[in-house]
Design a protein that fits this description.
The structure is a homodimer. Chain A has helices at 14-24, 35-42, 46-58, 76-87, 90-105, 147-153, 158-168, 181-194, 236-256; strands spanning 32-33, 62-64, 71-73, 108-115, 118-125, 140-142, 197-200, 207-215, 221-230. Chain A is an alpha+beta fold. In chain A, helix 2 packs across helix 3. The structure holds a DNA duplex.
DNA sequence: TCATATGTTCAATATCAATGAACAATATCG
DNA sequence: CGATATTGTTCATTGATATTGAACATATGA
């Protein structure tokens, strides 16, 4: 919910900032919103929000429910999302390796990057058997409670890491979720030392993940790959050993990332 | 490419219209663009486009390649796309039926709607075996050469159908692609008569599809479901018979669409 | 049925988005 | 390798227009 942020860089067109903030205010928790609802949350005047929504509707970016008169995001955005995915060339580079990982572990494989203090899953490769831990591409999640998130957090500057946590908070999802900052810092230090992150049922009960950082051409970590599956198939005692091949696969992707910025 | 359209409805915030047109100008064919390139295509001044892009970048909607200084759509849009998909509740309603279709035919199943004269694939269900006709959710395609497209076209008003074709053209993809309007009209009449549409390798050589229209609560067709697979598994002689169960599955979805607007 | 809330319209004004010219940095060509 | 064209970027000015508040219409709920 605290996803509506004022831009830090210079943004010359302030009316556009408002409009994009309106679009941003739609989320999985709030997929359908009314005019006044948005206006109050963002502190923008009602008529302004109305004008923005009307314009966005004419362009296919939102659509209004004729019955409730409330608004939701429009189909047009799906097309843009597709352009993002195809354009990144991620699939060509990352997916082949992910499939090797899937074949090796026979578990679901995820690839995620950081975006505005959260992780966004860009690619998913499911095991051939029907999987328990299905996950949609494009989904975003908090960083403190996911394997991919912690793997990326661990390689941020301490300032940036603190900024992310203080901005996003540390919501508790399960009894294993780390909700204490000091504890998280110890965990991140451990991740840096061993080279992989473990999500020990911290986000979804019964699901464990192992995640490794992915580096770009100047060595900066801003992506992560993970395998995830039911806790019986990823017992805690086995994880240290299971993580080793995954780290090699991760290094392989990093190697292919000359082009990635 | 002719996707950049001026809105027909009233759009009070003209600066926002420009900005959204800039975002729209990114496509699968043009995923990366320069400032002047966009400015010239849209007839907007260079500095204006620059300001729009800078603002969008600050908000995460586009990102600039530090080397080429050109722009591409940003990751933020993926998150919005996810909100669209989840919010539609399509998955809950449509996917279960699609899975039944997949299990029945053992072929890839697609669900698409019309958007601005093209079809957008909203859901895909792959057969358990590795599929030949893989297709990404969010992808858009022309209507005259796809099964789902023709199924929807066939149930539009003649005026709207002609508007779509004259706007989008009839690009030739294979030697089977229908590129003549009169021929297309005969084909659409046939589709209305028999209740299903056939894509006989008109989009991709070697791939056939059978598509059925999906109706909403007032009987308007604005979606379609198809099965697609290699031509050997969908021989022309068998299609009429294969289409019958698919029409029932389609009717089933239409029935569940009391809620869809 | 009345009262409250929510979406919508509209005219007026101050804001700020658009503009064009100039600069810097890169790419292209001779 | 140097000259030229091209592209991204800056900035001050100004005329268009986004914003605003108040009023209306419609829907919701007691």
């Amino acid at each position: 919910m605290p996803d509506t942020k004022v831009p830090d860089k210079k943004a010359p067109v302030s009316s556009l900032v408002k409009a994009l903030r309106v679009l941003d205010s739609f989320s999985l928790e709030q997929p359908e919103q009314g005019v006044t609802e948005i206006a109050e949350r963002l502190g923008i005047h009602k008529s302004t929000v109305y004008n923005i929504l009307t314009t966005c509707e004419a362009m296919g970016y939102v659509q209004q429910d004729p019955h409730t008169r409330r608004y939701r995001l429009g189909l047009h955005i799906l097309r843009l999302g597709q352009v993002v995915r195809e354009g990144m060339d991620l699939r060509r580079v990352v997916v082949p390796v992910m499939e090797r990982v899937r074949d090796y572990y026979r578990e679901a494989v995820h690839f995620a990057v950081e975006l505005n203090g959260q992780v966004v899953y860009l690619e998913t490769v499911q095991p051939l058997e029907r999987s328990v831990a299905s996950l949609a591409v494009g989904k975003s999640a908090y960083m403190h409670c996911t394997g991919v998130g912690k793997a990326i957090l661990a390689h941020m500057s301490p300032e940036r890491m603190h900024a992310v946590i203080s901005e996003q908070g540390m919501a508790q999802y399960t009894q294993n979720t780390i909700t204490d900052l000091a504890e998280l810092e110890i965990e991140l230090e451990k991740i840096r030392r061993q080279g992989y992150a473990v999500d020990n049922m911290e986000y979804e009960w019964g699901i464990r993940c192992i995640a490794v950082p992915i580096r770009n051409e100047i060595g900066v970590v801003h992506a992560s790959m993970s395998i995830s599956g039911p806790s019986e198939r990823l017992p805690l005692e086995a994880i240290a050993e299971m993580a080793q091949p995954l780290m090699h696969f991760g290094a392989d992707i990093s190697k292919r990332f000359g082009w990635l910025r």
